[in-house]
Design goal:
With 286 residues, this protein is α+β, with helices and mostly antiparallel strands. It folds into 2 domains: 109 residues, Alpha-Beta Plaits (2-Layer Sandwich), CATH 3.30.70; 142 residues, Alpha-Beta Plaits (2-Layer Sandwich). Strands 1, 2, 3, 4, 5, 6, 7, 8, 9 and 10 form a 10-stranded mixed beta sheet that branches. α1 crosses α3 and α4 crosses α5. The radius of gyration is 20 Å and the shape is globular. The mean pLDDT is 94. Its EC number is 5.4.99.12. InterPro entries: PsdUridine_synth_cat_dom_sf, PsdUridine_synth_TruA, PsdUridine_synth_TruA_a/b_dom, PsdUridine_synth_TruA_C, TruA/RsuA/RluB/E/F_N. This is tRNA pseudouridine synthase A. Pfam families: PseudoU_synth_1 (PF01416).
Length: 286
């Protein structure tokens, strides 16, 4: 078997999330159908982090294993480099299957030590919110959440700064059985872009289910004046103090969320990183 790393992006508007679901159009379903078309056999993909319905990705990462027969079929008689052949053939198959909203960036052969999910050392997301001060660009509507009123982005930035570091993000997660809600948040920036939309950038070692949208939901409450600046950090402190119930989450809509990139260590560290991550987080989405 030959392992490939594939980098891709997608517009999430027309998908019911990443994971295959019977009778529903999903990113994984379209991708694996295209892979079966070009390889002549069913192919299973492992993704860096599953995204919810309506969430976009600029740079997502998957790995997959191809048999010698599948690789031979892929490269054909031209004896092309397998990664380049996979990119070309997948692009054509996705167009043929009616999935132009998935873009294949690159593909390369990697060692079996590489795991798209467990070898990752960070994921980065952005979230875009338009308030009353924002110029509403019709070309950006599909990746923007519209919020009535004016948000105090300075207050949001101050509250965001108090969440950085290693914490139990239970107040902003939907916990999974046998999983942990402890994460390290490296970056949480809040600023306004050229259209005066509020753009939030988050980078962490991994994210729990709904962690990004719920954390931003808390910051939006701060920006709207519904919560004091100190409230998000206070909820984290309550969870770390053993409180099991800290109130309902405010989960933001999906369309403003974009997976921007996934980071990995050097090749020699892939296996060690994957082993450590599995030990801590098996059973919890990245």
């Amino acid at each position: 078997m030959t392992r490939f790393r594939v980098d891709l992006g997608y517009r999430g508007t027309g998908f019911h999330g990443w994971a295959v679901q019977p009778g529903l159009r999903t990113v994984q379903g379209c991708l694996e159908s295209a892979l079966e078309t070009v390889c002549g056999e069913p192919i299973r993909t492992i993704v860096a982090g599953r995204t919810d319905s309506g969430v976009h990705a600029r740079r997502q990462v998957v790995h997959l294993d191809l048999s010698a027969e599948a690789v031979a079929r892929l490269i054909g008689r031209a004896d092309r480099e397998p990664g380049a052949a996979l990119v070309s053939r997948l692009r054509g198959a996705l167009r043929h299957l009616g999935c132009p909203d998935i873009v294949i960036h690159s593909a390369q052969t990697v060692s079996a030590d590489f795991d798209a999910r467990f070898s990752a050392i960070w994921r980065e997301y952005t979230y875009r919110v338009a308030d009353d001060d924002t110029f509403l660009d019709p070309l950006a509507v599909e990746r923007t959440t519209i919020q009535r009123g004016r948000l105090d982005h300075d207050a949001m930035a101050k509250a965001a700064g108090e969440l950085l570091g290693l914490h139990d993000f239970l107040p902003f997660c939907r916990p999974r059985p046998e999983g942990t809600t402890i994460r390290t948040l490296f970056v949480l920036d809040v600023d306004r872009d050229a259209d005066a939309a509020i753009l939030l950038r988050l980078r962490a070692d991994a994210f729990c289910h709904h962690m990004v949208r719920a954390t931003i939901g808390g910051l939006v409450k701060v920006g709207a004046g519904s919560w004091p600046v100190s409230r998000p950090a206070e909820l984290i402190a309550l969870a770390e103090g053993g409180a099991a119930d800290v109130g309902p989450m405010h989960v933001m809509p999906p369309q403003g969320l974009v997976l921007e990139a996934v980071g990995y260590p050097d090749a020699g560290e892939w296996a060690q990183r994957a082993e450590r991550t599995r030990a801590r987080r098996l059973g919890v989405d990245a």
